[in-house]
Amino acid sequence: MNEQIQLLNERVTQLEQELARLQSQVNGGSSSPWWDRVAGRFENDSTYDEIVRLGREYREAQRPEDE
User: Fold this and answer.
1) Residue 42 CB neighbour total at 10 angstroms
2) What is the three-class DSSP state of 48?
3) Residue 7 lies inside a defined structural domain of this protein
4) Could you list the residue range(s) of the whole structural domain that residue 49 is in?
5) Residue 23 pLDDT
């Protein structure tokens, strides 16, 4: 039984290491959340501002008249 526990411990350690590696890849090697890395990317971008305006216009057009 002791051998089985040791084997399971080794497997869990390997899985934890692999999980950490995969998380690092997903995060681009960064520990900060993705939204911190992209925040402000579209600052002073007229094309993005137009996208936002058109999206708002579309959403407002989808609302019922009585709102």
Assistant:
1) 13
2) helix
3) yes
4) 2-62
5) 82
